[in-house]
Amino acid sequence: MSNYQVIRSSKNKHMKYKFLALISLLFFLSASSCKDDEPAKPDPPRDRTKQYNEKEKDSIMHYMQTHYYTLDAQYNVTFDTIDPAGSHISIWDDANLVKLDVVDPKVDDLHYDLYYIPFREGSGQAITKMDKVLMSYKGLVLNGKVFEERIDNLPVWHNLLTVVDAWKEVIPHFKAGTYTDNGDGTVTFSDYGAGMLITPSGLAYYEKYQNSTLKSYSPLIFTFKTFVVNNDDDDDLVKNTDEDLDMDGDPLNDDTDEDKIPNIYDTDDDNDGVLTKDEDANGDGDPTNDDTDGDGVPNYLDADTH
């Protein structure tokens, strides 16, 4: 009896070890599987100076030297490769090509060549970097594939304070146009601005992956039309540019009444209970020149004066 018990105990002990070994193996495999399922950490952004000077600058120049564009009557653009036996003028040799020297937003000593061609300036209101613009546009990579588009009959408002840097630099060189209400819920635009730009990735999306067509570190082409401009975001009779009180180019850090609403979006800039547009004492449509108490502070920024 005792021998049987010893043998049984030994077998149980052996089975126990096998069971524990199996549990350990399953735990290891499970941990390994979970580890494999974890998303890979993204690579750190490339050196911006090397990326532009060693990879993108020449590729942009090569594209412009080997491609040309054609326009239709509505300023829609088509790009194609130059046939050496043909007579097309390259983008690089276009008489209207403009090159801007733009400093990288993150590296002070890195200068980009930003190119644009104005097909038509526009005959309407001027555009500033602080305005909203109703636009149609098309974005392409250098291989000609379109990654984003808004057509003329479905334009979209763009706040130039929040778009890519290339747009901030180029779009203010254009003007809005005019439009006619057709009476059926549609409008017809005319005399609008139209153009194209070619930008390095450092003034666009850089390392940010957008979609299957637009990869990281892609130089880009944009064609665009500027239909309407809104230069008074909060409709308070003070232009967006005049809301930048410290004139540092950023109206989002100007908040007179410290209510955490920048003046550019605040309908009562001094929080005195009187709307800014109602502090236009002389009725000329410009509250910035009304200073009732003569203290050098316009009424709309002076909580003590209405």
Number of domains: 2
Strand content: 15-25%
Which percent bin holds the helix content? 10-25%
The global form is globular
Biggest β-sheet: count, sense, barrel? 7 strands, antiparallel
The residue-averaged pLDDT reads 90
CA-based gyration radius: 31 Å
Could you tell me the CATH topology label of the largest domain.
Answer: Chitinase A, domain 3
Second-tier CATH architecture of the largest domain:
Roll
Distance between the termini: 108 Å
What would CATH call the class of the largest domain?
Answer: Alpha Beta
Q: Which structural category do the helix and sheet elements fall into?
A: alpha+beta
Give the count of helical stretches: 3
**Total E-strand runs:** 11
Give the ordered list of helices and strands.
HHEEEEEEEHEEEE
